[in-house]
Specification:
The protein has 9 helices and 10 strands. It has 258 residues and is an alpha/beta fold. The protein is globular, with a radius of gyration of 17 Å. 44% of the residues are buried.
Length: 258
């Protein structure tokens, strides 16, 4: 398979595996990805999950299991870190955060392993009047691999409710910062939110969701903790701000170390 050399609306990057340690791989559409990465993303292929995601994950679970209300904490954090110019959203879900943010003067690139999530988010943004068709670019891509060279530099990057779905320990997850920092502008910012498995107080509801999520492969976050993520962010960025709300680790970083 050839690697796509340009990024356009509905473009798909086809990235062959180069690290033998991550093999075997399975294709999703035309995209070659690691089997571990595909396992978490596959859950979002189910149309019923995308239909109830906002109500269940961002409403019930975030508020009562993670003790971190999305309207009160996570959404304002997201909004405060979206810049005018080029914005990259990684792990788009249903597009809830973008659809509830002022995107005036912002061109959006959506990146996800799952085509269903990309389609749902693009449609939502257009229907909500947040962006015109030619202002949205879609990239089906495994974010554990560098972005195509045809991508622009981004003024802001968001990764919300993504890292806890990525396979492996914290160092494996935060390795993505080593290449994402090169896609930021000099004054760009990268931000996100993730569910911690260690060193936070999980209530009974939260423990049950954690058990189920890690059992079915949607999560891989039993060992995830704020201290390790904070350390990794400071390894790659000069300015880092973090906080923990309930079981959610909120972070933003800027001034990448090259």
């Amino acid at each position: 398979m050839a690697v796509t050399s340009t990024l356009t609306r509905r473009s798909i990057a086809v990235l062959p595996l180069t690290d033998k340690a991550t093999q075997p791989s399975k294709p999703i559409g035309e995209v070659s990805i690691s089997e571990a990465s595909a396992q978490g993303a596959a859950m979002y292929s189910r149309s019923w999950l995308l239909t109830i995601y906002d109500w269940w994950v961002l409403g019930i679970v975030s508020t009562y299991a993670w003790a971190c209300s999305v309207p009160q904490y996570t959404l304002p954090w997201f909004r405060s870190n979206v810049r005018k110019g080029q914005h990259l959203d990684i792990g788009v879900g249903t597009g809830y955060y973008l659809a509830n943010t002022d995107l005036t003067g912002t061109q959006v690139t959506l990146t996800d392993l799952n085509q269903d999530a990309l389609d749902a988010t693009e449609e939502r943004l257009i229907n909500a009047g947040k962006a015109k068709v030619d202002e949205i670019q879609c990239l089906q891509h495994d974010i554990t691999r560098p972005l195509p060279s045809s991508c622009p530099k981004f003024n802001s990057i968001s990764m919300y409710y993504l890292l806890h779905c990525m396979p492996g320990p914290v160092p494996a997850k935060t390795a993505v910062f080593s290449h994402l920092k090169h896609t930021l502008t000099a004054d760009g910012v990268i931000s996100g939110a993730s569910i911690m498995g260690k060193d936070v107080q999980h209530n009974l509801f939260g423990r049950l969701v954690m058990m189920y999520g890690n059992w079915n492969g949607m999560f891989d976050n039993r060992a995830d903790n704020a201290a390790d993520f904070d350390e990794a962010l400071r390894e790659h960025f000069e300015e880092v701000e973090t906080q923990v709300r309930g079981a959610i680790f909120l972070w933003r970083a800027s001034k990448p170390k090259m």
